[in-house]
Amino acid sequence: MPDALRWLALTATVLLSGCSTLDYYSHLAKGQLQLLQAREPIAGLLENPATDPSLKQRLALAQQARTFASAQLSLPNNDSYRLYADIQRPFVVWNVFATPEFSLSPELHCFPIAGCVAYRGFYSQARARGAAALLKQQGLDTYQAGIEAYSTLGWFDDPLLNTMLRWSDERLVAVIFHELAHQQLYVADDTAFNESFASFVEHEGLRQWRTKQGLPPSDPQGEQQREQFIALVLSSRTRLQQLYASELPPAQMRSEKQVEFTRLRAEYHALSKREWGGNGRYDDWINAPINNAKLLPFGLYDRWVPAFAALFEQTGRNWPHFYQRVAALGKRPAAERQQILASLSPGT
Asked: Fewest CB atoms within 10 A around its CB: which of 5, 237, 291, 303?
């Protein structure tokens, strides 16, 4: 189905979802249409002598990674990321995460095609801020994050965006792998499963890409710091879950919640000073306000990555076989799926 017809079908579907969401769905449909209209073939830009040389260099790299993704990682072979769109802003969408004051469970938002996800996206930062403010008035913890790329799950040929070109070469390649992984497999109503799967494909795909290109391994120090930082945040989440499961009065629980955030900051600064030589690469994040919603992405994008890594090894590191196993796992009931993933994770 051509993209224009897909857009009409998608618009018709969401407009039938109820008047209460009509304005939001109209915003989404309009934003997606504007993105589609901004696309142009990368092949033409590479052949055009008027194209800026620095842009040509990044586009050429993206095309090498795009070819590698399908040829070596068995990811979908379509026109996604073979098109380019300059949308004239730093982020393509702004996601709003929200949780109750004493819970790490996200407020879910359900859509006709994607199912329920743990965030709500906006093409306008002002609309995202307004939505977050309304949620905050309801007593929820909220967090806004600018997003440079997203997948339409194969409904459209997703373009490479100017928002993605601000990254390093390595990060650009990795995100192409990540977003194509969402096209490869998507399980409705399970954000942690989908994002952990795509994160694993991204990390392993990047490792194989670097080997194929004759590049040295990714910065081991930076990767270790990233893993240590994530471990700190996940430990904090575990302690918060224990706190919220207690029967403490709300005022005391609220106080203990802030004590935990203070502990997280102190542990981070101690780690940075002790092992990183004072190189606080996550200082901006840790020094800004922290709440439950800000911790939410760490439980979504990283939760099952070790489990998928173990499953990849079980399939002999064969990508098609791995995808078959993951697809079969995705068809199981949610509780059974999580139990299997937990059994695959080291230390469980």
From this structure: 5
